[in-house]
Write a structure and sequence with these properties.
The chain is α+β, with helices and mostly antiparallel strands. The protein has five helices and six strands, in the order H-E-E-E-E-E-E-H-H-H-H. Strands 1-2 form a two-stranded antiparallel sheet.
Length: 214
């Protein structure tokens, strides 16, 4: 169970945390139950927040989350059990939602993760950040009719993947396989679908699994 913004959170600290989430800074720490707290060692002198981003509605949502190990070197699979966060509920959410109803809580390979040394604990922290950002995005969407994902987001767009991932670089799916031998062909096909006005297919977590489908 995770509650990123409990009702006991001081309003000034809450707004400071929100500013950090939108800025993408690392000056946050995670308490029990996925509660976000501002790091006392934060080096930012000011924490500005645009008026449209200041929440007007409660942010005290609680999430039941599941973190399941995948076959290494694939990263763990994170799902929101209740309330559900899937493509069906949020088809236009800026942060991609992968197959298996899994949430992209990390940006591979820029967010380092090691199966042996990090385990599920680092993923639990990333999940707390994710549900905090989802809570802010949803509140802003309901209030303004539009909202941007707070901070850095994994693009998931095929054109962005092709542009930003060299063919010889490790694929962003964390398979440790060169991009040219992994998701490149899939992303090229999705790019062509976009040009034709068709909706891109959901990017599979594993191309090995995708290619083995009947």
């Amino acid at each position: 169970m995770m509650q990123p913004f409990p009702p006991t959170l001081d309003k000034d600290e809450l707004l400071t945390i929100i500013s950090d989430l939108y800025d993408g800074g690392p000056a946050l720490r995670i308490d029990l139950n996925g509660t976000l707290r501002h790091d006392v060692h934060c080096r930012r002198r000011a924490h500005p927040l645009l008026p449209d981003l200041v929440p007007q509605n409660p942010l005290t949502a609680t999430y039941e989350m599941e973190v399941a190990y995948a076959v290494p070197p694939m990263r763990p699979i994170v799902r929101a059990i209740h309330p559900r966060i899937t493509v069906r509920e949020y088809p236009q959410m800026p942060q991609p939602i992968a197959p298996l109803k899994a949430l992209c809580v990390a940006n591979a390979p820029t967010d380092p993760w090691n199966f042996h040394s990090d385990g599920a604990l680092r993923y639990l922290d990333w999940t707390a950040y994710f549900v905090g950002k989802h809570t802010l995005w949803l509140e802003c969407l309901h209030r303004n009719g539009r909202a941007e994902w707070p901070g850095r987001s994994r693009p998931g767009d095929p054109d962005d993947e092709i542009k930003n991932t060299p063919p010889n670089a490790p694929c962003t799916c964390n398979s440790e396989v060169p991009y040219r031998d992994c998701h490149l062909a899939f992303d090229l096909e999705n790019s062509e679908r976009k040009k034709k006005g068709l909706r891109p297919e959901t990017r599979p977590l594993s191309m090995a699994f995708y290619k083995s489908r009947p």
